Amino acid sequence: MGYPHKPHARETTVLSQHFGDMDATTLQGWRKRGGYVALERALGMAPADIVNVVKESGLRGRGGAGFPTGVKWSFMKPGDGKPHYLCCNADESEPGTFKDREIMRWTPHALVEGCAIGAYAIGAETAYIYIRGEFTEPIDRMEAAIKEAYAAGIVGKNAMGSGKTVNVWVHRGAGAYICGEETALMNSLEGRRGNPRIKPPFPAVAGVFGQPTTINNVETLVAVPHILNEGAEWYKKFSRPDNPKSTGTKLYSVCGNIARPGNYEVPMGFPFRDFLYDLCGGPLPGRKFKAIIPGGISVPIQNLAEAEASLMDYEGFVAQGTMLGSGGVIVVDDAQNLVKFIARAARFFAHESCAQCTQCREGTAWTTKILERIAAGDGSAEDLDTLLEIADNMTGKTICVLSDSCATPVVSGLKKFRNDFESLIKKKTHHLVPAVA
Amino acid sequence: MSIHEMGGVEAPADTAHGRHAKGPYQPVFVGARKQELDELLTRYPSKMASLLPALWMVQHDRGWVSEEAMAEVARLLELTPAYVKGVVTFYTMYHQHPVGKYFVQVCTTSPCQVCGAEEVVDAFLRHTGCQELGVTSPDDKFTVIEVECLGACGFATPVMVNEEFIESVTPEGVPDLLSRYK
Would the CB atoms of B149 and A330 count as touching at under 8 Å? Predict the structure, then answer.
């Protein structure tokens, strides 16, 4: 539902059906709503069978990369004699994204259940939920739910009387966007600086504490109990007939210059035009949409024509020059100049760079400096070429993709909204300070 | 341990005194706190993994993370003080210096910026008497900073005051909001 709004008639509320309902946050309330039925069933199944159901459902990672969840789980080799770990990535920090926050605030037991099922499926006895430090209320709700689940014997030793051990713990972050990158998250969890690691080795081989690890997003894990309850065929129905690669429902966070911001849940393949104008109420009075970023600030900016032609799934957004990403829809209207918006995004990336790769450390800082210069009216025509050159040096050359993410809005912004840049640039080249006065 | 149990919106009792503390360093991890840390250690296969939570406990009790506290944590977790400092300095939420009784973080990242977050920052600076970002007000009550994406972009402008998270703050609403913090 469009919390804080009532659900829209065209939403398909699966994950968000209890948003805004305090009763659903308690164990008793959650059980009344069918909670922990899936976990009980899962604990009686062979782990490989759970992995197969999830594979069959077509569920893909909701954190941004869209990797098939069942396939990821199948990388964890059973019986290798090593402890396995599940990490739930609840470090939701991608500007424009605030769906995991609502999942944890309103349905904390759904995440406990999803984590417990996921952990059991990959042969792990422990799941860590890494939550960003600023999410104080979600942390409280998760801690309370976990406490209830332990007291009721749902998790812990002999979970639900199955004889199996499943521990679920919350781990609080301390303010670092980069810790949403899976290898940085693992370093942070281990008590290190949150620097991303070079891959390979991949987490399924050597992850947290050097052991085989799977990292899943919050929204991915809370979808799993529904898949086990209703079946893979049911889940696959939430897709468009001509694209079986994207299945299920997806939560979108909507923000920026739009009439009704909030969270909305729609099936894969939903028309983006209807989403923006019907569900979200269209632009603010007297304004027009100008630019749309559909998947968090790291994905390419769309112009209005591209956005209106998009179908909301992994392939649908790629066909219109961008990506589904995390589902954080940022809307910018005709009252804004894109340069200021992109400059602030660059400042964000400069602030959040872990600084271990030169291209990122230097590139994010220089990009910010040049964009802020242009925004202040001190830019030159050459600055635009310099920006693209820096962006090129920042793309595909670093340990993680933070650097690429900073370059993305610059490149797509310059390509599609060049007028916004040029209108700020004075019609003269930069005056060099003479060496001799 | 919930945020509420960690003290919720109440400022730590000894924040103001911590800044002028005299005499020898008093350890954080004694009594109940030590027990909490010991319980925490059972959740992880390494002692080092308890570092971030241990630093949170320090900050809750003392209002900031001093060099002495870093050394105490280092000793308990079998790390070096330099290592702990390296970790503390990586994460923006640990205060390496005392801050005002109420630490105000205003989100100004792009999605909030286009909704007018900069005016919210100005209002906080004006009404708290801080004048400048990162500077504590003359009465030691407030420190205001800009923060990167708080993850509540649909509720622009989100603001954090200590551990309390407030949605949809407008410049006009700032004086009323501040009056809640005595």
Answer: no
Task: Give kind and range of the element (H or E) at residue B40.
Answer: helix B32-41
CA distance B106 to A436: 45
Q: Is B35 on the interface with A (CB under 8 A)?
A: no
d(CA A401, CA A278): 34
B119 is written with which tokens? 């005016």
Q: In whole angstroms, what is the distance from residue A225 CA to residue A124 CA?
A: 17
Q: What is the ipTM of this complex?
A: 0.94
Residue B55: list chain A partners with CB under 8 A: 174
CA proximity to A125, closest of A75, A74, A71, A82: A82
In this structure, is residue B153 part of a structural domain? Answer: yes
Q: In chain A, which segments carry CATH 1.20.1440.230?
A: 338-422
pLDDT digits (tens, 9 = 90+) for A292-328: 999 999 999 999 999 999 999 999 999 999 999 999 9
Residues 6+ apart with CB under 8 A from A101: A92, A135, A138, B151, B152
Query: Residue A429: pLDDT band by 50, 70, 90 thresholds?
Result: low
The pTM of the full predicted model, rounded to 2 decimals, is 0.94
CA–CA separation, A393 vs A363, rounded Å? 8
Q: Which CATH architecture group holds A34-236?
A: 3-Layer(aba) Sandwich (3.40)
